[in-house]
Amino acid sequence: GYTREELMAAISAGMPAKRWQHVEGVMESAVILAKRYGGDPEKADLAALLHDLAKFWPIDEQEAIIRDNDLNTELLAYDKQLLHAEVGAFIARWDYGVGDQEVLDAVRYHTSGRIGMTLLDKIVCLADYIEPGRNFPGVERIRELAETSLDDALIAGFDSTISFLLEKHKVIFPMTVLARNDLIQNKT
Ligand code: DGI
Ligand code: FE
Ligand code: FE
Ligand code: FE
Q1: HD domain: which residues (predicted)?
Q2: CATH code of domain 4-135
């Protein structure tokens, strides 16, 4: 197995410095959210460390990994930005030996979301939106909501992504809409 330090070295070596800063920001935010909302800070830290490991891999390589390993080929018909989450979870399992299914799922669903998101899924997905380096329009409002409601903040995050995709006339992966609806229908 890899130690956390070895994982950090391997993952940071596989991406530009700017993206590694983002990963460190997501780790920091994910641990804060885990402590705030009763999650597991160690799992949040590990999932955040892993979440974008494939983000800068060539798209054709990401597509090949999905095809050759019977992963979710439905993704191939949508925005290529969705692929790195699926690939990252696979690589975390088979190249880095991560066996914790909760952590692997949080990596796998950090971009698309899913119906029935676990606490850890929500923490990693929201941390990805609000880490200190993010500066997209509306991020301050999502950070404010994150102080008091994990679900409301995450709904606002998905709303912002969906609005952005609509604005650009891009296709939307249906699971993102289902994830957002499910959060609204089941929030506590
Ligand atoms: O990898 P990051 O940039 O840190 O963030 P991410 O993994 O959440 O990727 C988000 C990008 O994916 C964002 O620029 C929007 C794009 N995207 C394209 N189609 C979809 C999508 N995101 C979601 N959630 N659903 C889509 O259908
Ligand atoms: Fe990502
Ligand atoms: Fe995200
Ligand atoms: Fe990210």
Answers
A1: 19-133
A2: 1.10.3210.10
pLDDT in tens, 151-183: 999 999 999 999 999 999 999 999 999 999 999
ipTM > 0.90?
yes
Query: Ligand 1: which of 19, 81, 109, 162 to mutate, judged by most atoms within 8 Å of the beta carbon?
Result: 81
Mean pLDDT of the chain: 98
Q: Taking the domains of the chain in order of start, what are their residue ranges?
A: 4-135
Residues 96-105: contacts with CB within 8 Å, 24+ apart?
Answer: 96/2, 96/7, 96/10, 96/50, 97/1, 97/2, 98/46, 98/50, 100/43, 100/46, 102/43, 103/43, 103/46, 103/47, 103/50
Q: Is the CB of 79 under 6 A from ligand 1?
A: yes
Q: Is 56 helix (H, G, I), strand (E, B) or coil?
A: coil
The pLDDT-based confidence of 188 (bands split at 50, 70, 90) is confident
Question: For helices 41-50 and 17-37, what crossing angle results, to 10°?
Answer: 160
Q: Which amino acid, residue 101?
A: Q
